[in-house]
Amino acid sequence: MFTQAELDLEKGLEMRKRVLSGILASEETYLSHLEALLLPMKPLKAAATTSQPVLTVQQIETIFFKVPELYEIHKEFYDSLLPRVQQWSHHQRVGDLFQKQASQLGVYRAFVDNYELAVETAEKCCQANTQFSEISEVILKVRSTKECKDLTAKYSLETLLYKPVDRVTRSTLVLHDLLKHTPSSHPDYPLLQDALRISQNFLSSINEESTPRRQSMTVKKGENRQLLKDSFMVELVEGARKLRHVFLFTDLLLCAKLKKQIGGLTSCSRNSPLGFKMTFCILTQQRANKGSKVMERLKKKLSEQESLLLLNSPNMPLRVHNRNGKSYVFLISSDYERAEWKEVIREQQKKCNLTSMELQMLTNSCLKLQTVHQLPLTVNKDEDESTGLYGFLNVIVHSASGLKQSLNLYCTLEVDSFSIFVNKAKTRVYRYTTEPKWNEEFEIELEGSQTLRLLCYEKSYNKAKMNKEDGESTDRIMGKGQIALDPQMLQGKDWQRTVIPMNGIEVKISMKFTSREFSLKRMPPRKPMGVFGVNISTVTKRERSKVPYIVRQCLEEIERRGMEEVGIYRVSGVATDIQALKTAFDTNNKDVSVMMSEMDVNAIAGTLKLYFRELPEPLFTDELYPNFAGGIALSDSVAKESCMLNLLLSLPEPNLVTFLFLLDHLKRIAEKESVNKMSLHNLATVFGPTLLRPAEKDSKIPTNPTQPITMGDSWSLEVMSQVQVLLYFLQLETIPTPDSKRQSILFSTEV
């Protein structure tokens, strides 16, 4: 029997090989770029000694300065590394190769110092010399064959010249990855440490010389106006998502572009939706330097993932217009917040004109207001701020009272997940009454959640009233309210009843919370029959199928009538319906297909998620989970692709076939994003933890109390990593599989 420490060491050494395989693939690509760059150099040099030179010798030496030397360095490195990886053992040494390569960074120093002059010379020669411009097009064809990109000749040449500059940063990141998966006792460890130190020092010296000095403006606070509301939104700009900080004053709507650099504010004008003026400025947020390097590294990683979530999650359009008819579209994740913005904008519509200097002064003033929000990232939270609740919240929506007339009513529930509010549940429509009694229970997963919001809508059945601009229904919000999720109030096992008041309406609900420690543990197989809580290989073997019957049935029903359901997979189904379907599948009820056809599609989606969540081990397996988490963190894209695909194809066949079956379905769901509001990123957020979350004991993030990161942050890091793994595979156009598996997986009629 191997100890856990020995197993962890073995996994780390296996990842070391995967990283090196990725480095080889990356080196091969880089060498092809250098070859493409060198391709025209020999004929140019030969022509330079004739009576009709294309370029002078000096121009050639300037443009291609040190490129042949770089090619020789990397060719020698590749030729030396390849046989060592091919003849691999865990005792194989490669550190000397990386140390030697790092010692030759002086060639890169010379190349980088000459880089701007090389690009400038190439641009001038392209413009002045038709022959050289045509030669540059040869470079373009070499690249477009390999990368399928349509680039101009000028941009192609500049891009190829930039490859060595970019390589310095990539090499440093790759060294960091390799060192991370090399045991400290391995003979390579000190050599790789030395190589990394040399590379980092080299990179720092370049950055210090190239970083421009920035100064921030200090101006007085704007007068005679009051800040009413501010929040972060996503603006759609020619189809691209851009994160904005939007401020609403009593006479002005101000929109700020965010930049990551430390510094002040720079004005960037743009006019003017709404009756009042809307202006765009560049807003830079400063971060405090807190804590140890370990904490900073983990916090940075978490912030990067949270920023992606912040940018990709919102899907509800808030459209604003200027008096000339031009419109701007912002995306918000919460209908509650969208309603608030619409209400306050309607109240404050006025005309306003400010000079650019006045706008700059106002933007600077915003930073000094303590009421202004910071980006909702973990790194910006105070140390004593609550991390929220992790686990499951069961909510029963009982009834509503206080309505003045009979209406068709339903409620939705929103909770914050990583500081972003999203719709998590929806009751059925209670027809034409002043006292709806839903009595429906929902199970909502919480990820650092602190607030529960409830919205009450009047259902509109008139399709002619659909919003023509946004393609959304015009269901009217009758009331909205919220309640803090108090850990003290919810710590008991009993249901907590409460009333949420909203615009004269009162909605009665009950809540019960189960923390992550008890709700998210995967249990070992506890029964020979049934499908829930039973190993996937056992189920497929019993059914003589490649994909479990429950997965096929749920996906078939969802594809039949749930592809355009708003929030499919994100919105919870009624808990009693999900439990009824679970029992039917477990007992092999022959009427299960009839039951599904009569149930809300969200209950079917919830049943499928519950099935994957209750597997004894995740679909990606406990054994491979740490490797997937390590692979997605690799810095080099080629190394990452090599690692992730090899890991995927290492899954047991029932797991792999089921995952590919589900993956195709999720991609088809995302194709309907304009209607169902479920992008690939949103689907990855929902399914990532469900498919990858390991047993608690297999958690990759350390939970040692001596680590300078909270338990909540460690959970957040794991969840973000799980989301990124699934998102990576969702974004791949195709997943190449060996011929032996392709026939078994993709062309099987037994699925």
From TrEMBL:
SMART domains: C2 (SM00239), RhoGAP (SM00324), RhoGEF (SM00325)
GO biological process, one term: intracellular signal transduction
Domain of life: Eukaryota
Domain DH: 15-209
Gene3D superfamilies, A to Z: C2 domain, Dbl homology (DH) domain, Pleckstrin-homology domain (PH domain)/Phosphotyrosine-binding domain (PTB), Rho GTPase activation protein
Molecular-function annotations in GO: GTPase activator activity; guanyl-nucleotide exchange factor activity
Coiled coil (UniProt feature): none
Residues annotated as domain Rho-GAP: 534-728
InterPro entries assigned: Abr/Bcr (IPR037769), C2_dom (IPR000008), C2_domain_sf (IPR035892), DBL_dom_sf (IPR035899), DH_dom (IPR000219), GDS_CDC24_CS (IPR001331), PH-like_dom_sf (IPR011993), Rho_GTPase_activation_prot (IPR008936)
GO cellular component: axon; dendritic spine; membrane
UniProt keyword annotations, A-Z: Cell projection, GTPase activation, Guanine-nucleotide releasing factor, Synapse
Compartment(s) of residence: Cell projection, Axon; Cell projection, Dendritic spine
Sequence ranges assigned to domain C2 in this UniProt record: 373-500
PANTHER family according to UniProt: BREAKPOINT CLUSTER REGION PROTEIN, BREAKPOINT CLUSTER REGION PROTEIN BCR
Protein name: BCR activator of RhoGEF and GTPase
Native source species: Cyprinus carpio (Common carp)
